[in-house]
Amino acid sequence: MTDCIFCKIISGDIPSYKVYEDEEVLAFLDLSQVTKGHTLVIPKKHVTDIFEYDEDLAATLFARVPKIARALEQAFPDMQGLNIVNNNKALAYQSVFHSHVHLIPRYSKQDGFSLSFANNQADYTPEAMEQIAHAIKKEVN
C-alpha cells in the first residue's frame, strides 16, 4: 500500500528504530515512547486490522510478541510490567490503519500510561450473558 506509513517503514522509505526483523514481522520503537521502550510489532504484509488476519498470519505475528517482550524485560531491568495493546478500527483508537501491536513497558503507576475498564456486571443477568455467549459461539468457525 503506497500511502501507508508502516509499509513505507517496511520498505525503508521512512527510517525507524528497528528492534527485531525477520521475513514476515518487523518491530520498531514507537516515536511517541509512551514509556521507555514502547515498541510496535507489525506484520510486513499489509492488513488493516485484526479482522483481516488469517490463522497463519496471526500465528506468525503473535508468536514473536513473547520474544520481543522478553527482550524488553532484559533490556530494562527496572521494568515492572508490560501492556500489550492492539487497537482495531477508529472507535477503538486505531490511528494507523496497518495492523500493529503495542508493547508498552511499565515502570510505575505514574509512568504516563493507564487503562481503566468499567465494571458493568450489574447490567447483565445470567440469561443475558448466556445470550451473548451463544451469539459469539455460533459465529466462531
> How many discrete structural domains?
1
Rough outline:
globular
CATH topology, anyone?
HIT family, subunit A
| Structural class label | alpha+beta
Count of discrete alpha- or pi-helical segments spanning 4 or more residues: 3
* CATH level-two architecture: 2-Layer Sandwich
How do the strands of the widest beta sheet line up side by side? Answer: 1-2-3-5-4
End-to-end CA span: 29 Å
**How large is the share of residues in beta strands?**
15-25%
Biggest sheet details: 5 strands, antiparallel
* Mean pLDDT score: 96
Low-confidence stretches: none
The Rg value, from CA coordinates, equals 17 Å
Helical residue percent?
Answer: 25-40%
Order of helices and strands: HEEEHEEH
CATH superfamily: HIT-like
- Under CATH at level 1, the class stands as Alpha Beta
* Number of E-type strands: 5
Active site: 100 (tele-amp-histidine intermediate)
Protein name: HIT family protein
Motif (Histidine triad motif): 98-102
GO molecular function: catalytic activity
Structure, explained:
- By secondary structure, the chain is α+β, with helices and mostly antiparallel strands.
- The chain has a single domain, classed as HIT-like (HIT family, subunit A), CATH 3.30.428.
- The protein contains 3 helices and 5 strands.
- It has helices spanning 5-11, 55-75, 126-137, and strands spanning 18-21, 25-29, 39-43, 81-85, 101-106.
- The protein has a 5-stranded antiparallel beta sheet, covered by helices on one side.
- A hairpin with a 3-residue loop joins strand 1 (18-21) and strand 2 (25-29).
- It is globular, with a radius of gyration of 17 Å.
- The model has no long low-confidence stretch (mean pLDDT 96).
